[in-house]
Amino acid sequence: MTQTEIRRSRSALSRVESRQALGFVSPALLGLAIFTAVPVVLSIVMSLYNWPAFGERSFNGFGNYVNLFTKNPDFWPALRNSAVFTILYVPANIAVSLGLALALSSRIKGRAAFRVLFFIPVVTPVVANALVWKMLLQPKGLINGVSVSVFGVELPNFLADPTWAMIMIVVMSVWQGMGYNMLIFSAALEQLPDSVMEAARIDGAKGWRMLARIKIPLISPSIFFAVIMTMISAMQVFAQPQLLTGGGPGNSTLPLVMFIYQQGFKFQDLGLAAAGAWILFVIIILITAVQFGAQKKLVHYEH
Amino acid sequence: MKFKKTMAVSATAALALSLAACGSDDKGGNEGTGSGSGEKAQITWDMWAGSDDDIAALEATLKIAQEENPDIDIKLQHAPWNDYFTKLTANLSSGKAACVTSMNGQRLSGYADAFMELTPEDMATAGIKESDFTAGSLDIMSSGGKVLGIPYDVATMMVFYNKDQIEKTGAPAPKLGWTKADMEATLAKAGDDKMKAFGMGMAEFQWLALPISVSGVQPVTADGKLDLTNPAFVDAATWYGSFVEKGWADQAPSASETGWGESEYQAGNAALAVDGTWNAVSYLNNESGFKAGMVDLPAGDSGKNLGLVLGSGYGIAKNCENKEAALKVLGSLVGKAAQDSMASSGRSYPARVESQPLYFEALDASVRDEVKGAFDAAFANVAGQNTNAEWTKISETFPNNLVSVYTGATSMADMLKATQDQFAK
């Protein structure tokens, strides 16, 4: 068999194999098309229409977007609330979960049990978590009860006060979300290279300097990942305000996703909801792009 | 080659199977076909049902309708209340709503486009006479001046009270035909350390009932204009909101507590609350173990009270292809036999007048006369609710804004004015 013949038979084989491979991936491709590509394209189309859940649909151009930015009284507050939540939640979540991971990284007794304990809120349903927090926070709840009986101080009605309501949503969200990032940070801290740590110690690094100059730069890829994912989940916050405050008082805790849900599923204006969803998508992509840009300067990769 | 063929066949089969799975189970849809000779017409009836008891009751009604229409094959499909409207919206958006679709009167305005208008000829086909139903009850299933369905039950708001607490505190007991001043006298004395006098309403009717009754004014005028700043209504709403300030009621803990006042009453934390007649039986048998009483809404300065007639009913979806068969089924579902069955089970207060006495017969003899008296009084002065296209949105904003009123962060008058400014066009 000459070289050319071998090459030819190989390429014939690879063609057959490519076709077979295509056959195997076609269900997945079809799934991707039906469940991802089509809905995405449809949602763009929807955002350009007056699209009630049922009844007459009419082309509206960028009318839904104009309506959101110039007429809708709840859109800007919703955008502001999502921003406030993200600005408060992301740093608090990262700080608390990093703190927990560092506290549990030394060989203390029962640290596995602590990790499980801190991870439990992540796996329990958010509805159950919210119910417990509601019981804690209401005027007749545990926190106010203890405050009144021990200190004689009546605390504010946390979930009915515009400022406190947002703070309490952030506090509950941090409590619920910290376990996940803690695991990521714990895993990164476990894998710190011994040689580097030893060299640092020999050079006299300890305490704060060790943490700020050695450990955090070494786990910065994990921090970067956690920040991106936490930021995205913060922009998409829905369940906590929906269950704890219903978006109130007024619209002070109504985030963008809840606004989209209300427009689409309560007021049946799917076009407006789709437009809102695309605005949210663009915001998330932009923030993520900025974060990836900052990554080059701030994140340290070991090569 | 053989391998390739096998693979292609199995891939096609898998695809076909998955597509078939997606496409099946849409019987609820565009049925109503089969009206041709020899073939039985198929009509689907879509209704909400939460528990096994609910489903059993629906099946009993289905049996009655089926017996009355042997030439029509009636299918029942149901979903729990919370899912029902989501499913209905999804069905409507794909043109697959069931021919006979159940609808709650308060939600009808949002779904008005989904239903056929029922003309006097349609009513005749269904065997329905307007005079058989509670006066004004056809308004429940009407929107924009068009009758879009027939009610199967009627309801209105009442004041429920805890008899044990009233007795304990010595507060004047609420009585039929009472007034705003009588209610104030009761509220001033009905609370103590353990129980507040009143549970503040958050949901649409639970909070609006007293301001409407006392002022005699609805927040939307008969021609659909938003009238939240009507001075009489503002005064009455301000009076209602002042219950918290006067210490008669607790603030609601959050805007998501839309059933706040009623749940406080049910739990034995409030002596009085406003709720619908639909909960009368569950309050009489409450788990907290207190004796429940009920009276009509208090009258304002005019000396007359005003209630809204509420309820649910059945309509015919616009996409239904066999209207005549659907009308016959509709006629049976609100017919005497079906209504008698519903009333005697104590599940709902029927819209058909001649079936109403059976509802009271199902109650315990010790409370029967009292409940009947309260129902008669509550339904004596009722009107259909005026709404407009924006009303769903407006009523959705109330709980969020009421929280701020109850905590004192804003006044009732300011809240009503802000809502009026936002939605009035």
Low confidence ranges of chain A: none
Which topology of the largest domain in chain B does CATH recognise?
A: D-Maltodextrin-Binding Protein, domain 2
Beta-strand level of the residues of chain B, as a percent range?
A: 15-25%
Shape of chain A: flat
The chain-level structural class of chain A is mainly alpha
Element layout with pairings:
The complex is a heterodimer of chains A (about 300) and B (about 425).
Chain A: H1 3-47, E1 49-50, E2 58-59, H2 63-71, H3 75-103, H4 111-123, H5 126-137, H6 142-151, H7 162-190, H8 194-202, H9 207-218, H10 220-235, H11 239-244, H12 256-266, H13 270-298
Antiparallel strand pairs in A: 1-2
Helix pairs in contact in A: 1-13, 2-13, 3-7, 3-10, 3-12, 4-7, 7-10, 10-13, 12-13
Chain B: H1 2-23, E1 41-48, H2 52-68, E2 72-79, H3 81-93, E3 100-104, H4 108-111, H5 120-126, E4 142-143, E5 146-147, E6 149-155, E7 157-162, H6 163-169, H7 180-190, E8 196-199, H8 204-215, H9 231-245, H10 260-266, E9 270-276, H11 280-284, E10 292-295, E11 307-316, H12 323-333, H13 336-344, H14 356-361, H15 365-378, E12 382-384, H16 391-407, H17 412-423
Outline of this structure?
The complex is a heterodimer of chains A (303) and B (425). Chain A is mainly alpha-helical and 303 residues long. Chain A has 13 helices and two strands.
Explain the overall architecture:
The complex is a heterodimer of chains A (303) and B (425). Chain A has helices at residues 3-47, 63-71, 75-103, 111-123, 126-137, 142-151, 162-190, 194-202, 207-218, 220-235, 239-244, 256-266, 270-298, and strands at 49-50, 58-59. Chain A is mainly α and 303 residues long. Chain A has a two-stranded antiparallel ribbon. In chain A, strand 1 (49-50) and strand 2 (58-59) form a beta hairpin. By secondary structure, chain B is α/β, with parallel strands linked by helices. Chain B folds into two domains: 29-154 and 312-365, 3-Layer(aba) Sandwich (D-Maltodextrin-Binding Protein, domain 2); 157-309 and 376-423, Periplasmic binding protein-like II (D-Maltodextrin-Binding Protein, domain 2, 3-Layer(aba) Sandwich), CATH 3.40.190. Chain B is 44% helix and 16% strand. Chain B contains 17 helices and twelve strands. In chain B, the strands form three sheets. In chain B, strands 1, 2, 3, 6, 11 and 12 form a six-stranded mixed β-sheet that branches. A four-stranded mixed β-sheet of chain B has the order 8-9-7-10, sandwiched between helices. In chain B, strand 4 and strand 5 (146-147) form a beta hairpin. The N and C termini of chain B lie far apart (71 Å). The interface between A and B is large, with 41 and 34 residues.
